[in-house]
């Protein structure tokens, strides 16, 4: 039995920031100011090219891999939308057995599945659950959560936040936009008893990069839920990708934490939170919300943040400040 | 060379074939009547008799997804399914050939819902016949084993690198104990070379598999797959011929039985062919000039071989185990009619759908069909019968 918290891994710091070409080549076709491709680039930069990547259909797949071009400098496969976890399971099992049979590289090779929130929390949740439950040793699943089906034109998903107007949860005379709260994917992933779950955010890039390193070091399935802003779908200015990400953490909307062998570690305490309204008012998708609506969201955000704090306090593990 | 036959359940024989081929990865989800194959494979892995990763996936959709990933990573990959499981795989079935992932799959043929029915017909495979897989149909236990071995060789041949399905009739074949000669592992190794993938997910030589096909490249990607599938016929023939050299058992793309002087030919697939041949023996004893043509290779369709096999006949009775709703013909008949339409001389073709959802197919059925096929053709009316249907 391995101990996730004690598994050594190499953190990314300003001093040890990986040099050299990006594992995700430039020239992709993501929108200007895309927070998702920024997150993806940083995650891959942290791991380098000694890995195998599996993409679900979605923005990141479409914008990086139009035949005959590809931005992926490591072996990469895309099969369909809902099955990145299952494809990665097959790749991981194959790499493992070929290593054992002496027909592949004699070292651990991380297999990283990358999908959006729709491909993870909605259509892909069954495949993901199966993969997490089966305990693949070198399996990392990254959900890049931009909170709606952006690739198909901003339709709501189960990760769309309450109050957001999307093309299938539009605000109107009888609607305040999305009527449900975000599905708690990290908790669902953690409920599978896997050794490592984390939330991350490209606005805290060293923390994000360190987390995928940690995921790769720990033996067993890992799940990383990554905040990914979307200027097109959220109707924010393209230059806000990093600023909005910082706000998401500093308002407590998107807490940064890890779950190591089931134990929560809050990476960044937010003792003096910025009001949620500061986050909401910068985004066109929330434009229709009134102060009363924002108050409801504020209450929910506080409650959720406190829940994570309590979970972290139950089993105090040395906290790690996000940088 | 030829060992002594042993009594073995056909499902177990298929699993033993996978062991003899030293498969690396099996990803499967249980479904009746495929279960005995995957149960036995799990047992072989648990007992250390097969050094493979067995991925107990949570659905058939994930089974095929995992298989595609595994084959793309360079592992010899096997799965098995039936009916609803195959239907759930549908999306991936169309992707695997274009990504050139040589997965081998046993399809233990079972009727598609609704109504839900666990028994045999060919509606599962026929609903995905255009997906781009090489597809063969087994008649008996020995063939089920042999075709599974040959399937790996065909699939992994760099000139093919396509997925292959071995179709085995559910229950009526899969659950029968039949005399089967089990080859030695060394014999199979002499026939089946190690898997050297055409392309694979290799860190030393990274490739991207599964790129977006824009309108400028989609047609060409589909054509490239079709070209390879059509060309695979020669590799299948080669694999069959070489199998005979190694194991002494002869296989052809299309098999004929008493067709030399036959006026009427029954066109069959799968295990009912044995019943058809018995019926033919009985009809021959009464002086009826009837024979059987059995299609073993269904995809790519062996056009020339099939035409040569049916050439002597005046009447062609095409038998289907699947009903195409909304069109008055089964899939095999549709195919055969389309192939022969442009020929200046062609037989009178009639179509008989039978044995749906596990309904018994008897010698009397074939005698009835033979009689019907010999009746003069009514102009302008396609001859079609849903055999034995209760009105």
Instruction: Report the helical percentage of chain B.
Output: 25-40%
- Silhouette of chain A: globular
The count of DSSP E runs of length 2 or more, i.e. the number of strands of chain B, is 16
Give the distance, in angstroms, between the N- and C-terminal Cα atoms of chain A.
Answer: 31 Å
What's the N-to-C terminus distance of chain B? 54 Å
Query: Could you say what the CATH architecture of chain A is?
Result: 3-Layer(aba) Sandwich
Low-confidence stretches of chain B: none
Helicity of chain A, in percent?
Answer: 25-40%
Tell me the total number of β-strands of chain A: 10
| Class computed from helices, strands and strand pairing of chain A | alpha/beta
Quickly count the domains of chain B.
2
Kindly describe this structure.
The complex is a heterodimer of chains A (323) and B (391). Chain A has 323 residues and is of the alpha/beta class. Helices cover 35% and strands 13% of the residues of chain A. Chain A has eleven helices and ten strands. An eight-stranded mixed β-sheet of chain A has the order 2-1-3-4-8-7-9-10, with helices on both faces. Chain A has a two-stranded antiparallel sheet with strand order 5-6. In chain A, a hairpin with a 2-residue loop joins strand 9 and strand 10 (263-266). In chain B, the strands form three sheets. A seven-stranded mixed β-sheet of chain B has the order 3-2-4-5-7-6-13, with helices on both faces. In chain B, strands 10-12-11-14-15-16 form a six-stranded mixed β-sheet, sandwiched between helices. Chain B has two domains: 6-247, Rossmann fold; 254-386, 3-Layer(aba) Sandwich (Rossmann fold), CATH 3.40.50.920. Chain B is 39% helix and 18% strand. The termini of chain B are far apart. Chain B is α/β, with parallel strands linked by helices and 391 residues long. In chain B, helix 10 links the parallel strand 11 and strand 12. Chain B contains 13 helices and 16 strands. At the A-B interface, strand 1, strand 2, helix 3 and helix 5 of A face helix 3, helix 5 and strand 9 of B. Strand 2 of chain A pairs parallel with strand 9 of chain B, so a sheet runs across the interface.
């Amino acid at each position: 039995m391995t101990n996730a918290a004690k598994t050594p891994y190499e953190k990314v710091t300003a001093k040890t920031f990986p040099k050299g070409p990006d594992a995700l080549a430039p020239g992709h076709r993501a929108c200007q100011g895309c927070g998702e491709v920024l997150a993806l680039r940083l995650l891959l930069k942290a791991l380098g090219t000694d890995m195998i990547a599996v993409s679900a259909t979605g923005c990141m797949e479409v914008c990086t891999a139009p035949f005959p071009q590809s931005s992926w400098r490591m072996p990469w496969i895309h099969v369909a939308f809902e099955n990145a976890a299952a494809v990665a399971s097959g790749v991981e099992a194959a790499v493992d057995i070929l290593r054992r049979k002496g027909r592949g590289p004699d070292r651990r090779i991380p297999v990283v599945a990358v999908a959006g929130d729709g491909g993870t929390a909605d259509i892909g949740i069954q495949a993901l659950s199966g993969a997490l439950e089966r305990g693949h040793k070198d399996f990392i699943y990254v959900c890049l959560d931009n909170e709606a089906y952006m690739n198909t034109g901003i339709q709501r998903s189960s990760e769309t936040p309450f109050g957001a107007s999307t093309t299938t949860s539009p605000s109107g005379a009888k609607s305040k936009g999305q009527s449900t709260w975000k599905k708690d994917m990290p908790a669902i992933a953690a409920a599978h008893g896997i050794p490592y779950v984390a939330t991350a955010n490209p606005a805290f890039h060293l923390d994000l990069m360190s987390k995928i390193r940690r995921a790769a070091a720990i033996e067993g399935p890992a799940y990383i839920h990554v905040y990914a802003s979307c200027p097109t779908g959220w109707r924010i200015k393209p230059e806000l990708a990093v600023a909005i990400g910082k706000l998401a953490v500093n308002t407590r909307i998107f807490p940064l934490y890890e779950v190591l062998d089931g134990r929560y570690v809050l990476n960044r305490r937010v003792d003096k939170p910025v009001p949620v309204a500061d986050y909401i008012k910068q985004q066109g998708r929330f434009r229709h919300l009134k102060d009363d609506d924002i108050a409801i969201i504020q209450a929910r955000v506080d409650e959720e943040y406190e829940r994570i704090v309590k979970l972290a306090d139950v089993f105090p593990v040395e906290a790690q400040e996000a940088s | 060379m030829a060992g002594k036959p042993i009594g073995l359940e056909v499902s177990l024989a298929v699993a033993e074939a996978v062991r003899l081929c030293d498969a690396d990865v099996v990803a499967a989800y249980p479904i009746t009547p495929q279960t005995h194959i995957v149960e036995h494979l799990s047992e072989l892995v648990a007992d250390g008799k097969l050094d493979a990763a067995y991925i107990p996936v949570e659905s058939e959709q994930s089974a095929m997804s995992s298989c595609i990933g595994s084959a793309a990573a360079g592992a010899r990959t096997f799965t098995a399914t039936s009916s609803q499981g195959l239907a759930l795989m549908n999306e991936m079935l169309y992707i695997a050939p274009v990504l050139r992932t040589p997965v081998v799959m046993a399809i233990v043929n079972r009727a598609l819902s609704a109504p839900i029915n666990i028994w045999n017909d060919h509606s599962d495979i026929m609903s995905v016949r255009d997906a781009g897989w090489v597809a063969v149909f087994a008649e008996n236990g020995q063939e089920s084993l042999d075709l599974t071995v040959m399937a790996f060789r065909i699939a992994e041949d760099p000139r093919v690198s396509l997925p292959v399905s071995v179709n085995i009739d559910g229950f009526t074949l899969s659950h029968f104990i039949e005399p089967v000669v089990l080859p030695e592992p060394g014999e199979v190794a002499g026939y089946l070379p190690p898997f050297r993938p055409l392309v694979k997910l290799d860190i030393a030589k990274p490739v991207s598999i599964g790129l977006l096909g824009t309108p400028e490249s989609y047609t060409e990607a589909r054509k490239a797959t079709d070209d390879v599938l059509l060309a695979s016929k020669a590799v299948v023939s080669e694999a069959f011929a070489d199998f005979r050299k190694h194991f002494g058992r002869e296989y052809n793309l299309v098999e004929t039985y008493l067709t030399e002087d036959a006026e009427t030919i029954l066109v069959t697939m799968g295990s009912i062919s044995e019943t058809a041949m018995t019926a033919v023996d009985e009809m021959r004893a009464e002086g009826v000039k009837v024979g059987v043509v059995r299609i073993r290779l269904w995809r790519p369709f062996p056009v020339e071989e099939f035409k040569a096999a049916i050439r002597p006949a005046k009447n062609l009775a095409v038998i289907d185990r699947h009903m195409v709703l909304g069109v008055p013909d089964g899939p095999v008949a549709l195919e055969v009619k389309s192939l022969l339409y442009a020929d200046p001389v062609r037989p009178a073709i009639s179509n008989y759908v039978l044995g749906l959802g596990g309904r018994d197919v008897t010698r009397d059925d074939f005698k009835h069909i033979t009689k019907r096929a010999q009746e003069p053709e009514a102009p302008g009316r396609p001859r079609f019968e849903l055999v034995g249907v209760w009105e």
